[in-house]
Design a protein that fits this description.
Layout: H1 11-77, H2 80-101, H3 114-127, H4 135-153, H5 157-169, H6 179-208, H7 211-224, H8 229-257
């Protein structure tokens, strides 16, 4: 005779189990999308850095020569309009120089390893702020998520392992609460995760439609045809620089003779 007792879950317990399963699935999906977003940000930043180093510096040089030409014209004309144009051209030259020689230009190509991606996905799933249970927990998770993102972009696998190790040893890893409270907590976490997924998709769409992404797509198409878009752009800008340089030097020589 089978004397095994089959324990039947209450409706609340069944609902909680169902929602926890749903939460686990969403956590994996969210970690994957966070990883995709982190990759997209890093790729576009690296591409923008290459553009600034190879083409942006030339545009900065072009703006410098444009500013010199505008200043020579203003000196000769002496009108308020010419002076205003010279001031605007000089401001643009300064802005272009700062952009071409700033931190963005230093960003190097980002090629994450399979292990780094796996660690990031696991860490993001564990520490994501949108799985927080209260405001204090969210603050802790936001701080941890910043560490995770920074470690990923810098390729620091050890830092990600330390985050995971700290989480495993944390008192927060201990589970326990009443069914009703747990169910409410899980429902709120589900809502937070869905909201974050929506925000991620929105940011991905905006990044994908950005000027940098559009230029990257053109560069990729040119590369598939055996062409170097940046080299073509650089040649075009250099020709414009030479033309304006000749104008400036010609005006300067004329002013010296006068």
């Amino acid at each position: 005779m089978n004397t095994e007792i089959v324990l039947q879950l209450s409706p609340e317990e069944e609902e909680l189990a169902k929602k926890r399963d749903e939460l686990a699935i969403l956590q994996v999906e969210l970690a994957d999308r966070e990883l995709y977003l982190a990759d997209l940000r890093a790729e576009l930043a690296a591409f923008d850095g290459r553009y600034l180093r190879e083409v942006g510096v030339l545009y900065a040089k072009l703006d410098e020569w444009n500013a010199r030409l505008a200043e020579l014209r203003a000196k000769k004309a002496g009108t308020p309009e010419a002076l205003a144009e010279a001031t605007e051209a000089r401001a643009q030259a300064k802005e272009a120089y700062s952009a071409a020689h700033g931190e963005a230009a230093e960003v190097q190509p980002f090629v994450p390893s399979a292990d780094l991606r796996k660690l990031y996905r696991e860490a993001a799933k564990r520490v994501h702020p949108d799985t927080a249970t209260d405001d204090a927990d969210r603050v802790r998770r936001e701080r941890r998520m910043k560490e995770v993102n920074a470690a990923y972009v810098s390729g620091d696998e050890d830092a990600l392992r330390r985050v995971l190790s700290d989480l495993n040893a944390s008192p927060d890893a201990v589970q326990g609460a009443g069914i009703g409270a747990d169910l409410i907590r899980v429902l709120r976490q589900l809502r937070q995760l869905r909201n974050r997924l929506t925000a991620i998709e929105h940011e991905i769409a905006n990044l994908s439609e950005s000027d940098v992404a559009t230029l990257k797509a053109k560069a990729n198409l040119a590369a598939s045809q055996g062409k170097d878009l940046f080299a073509q752009m650089a040649t075009s800008v250099q020709e414009r620089i030479m033309a304006i340089q000749q104008q400036v030097e010609g005006r300067f020589a004329g002013a010296a003779r006068a």
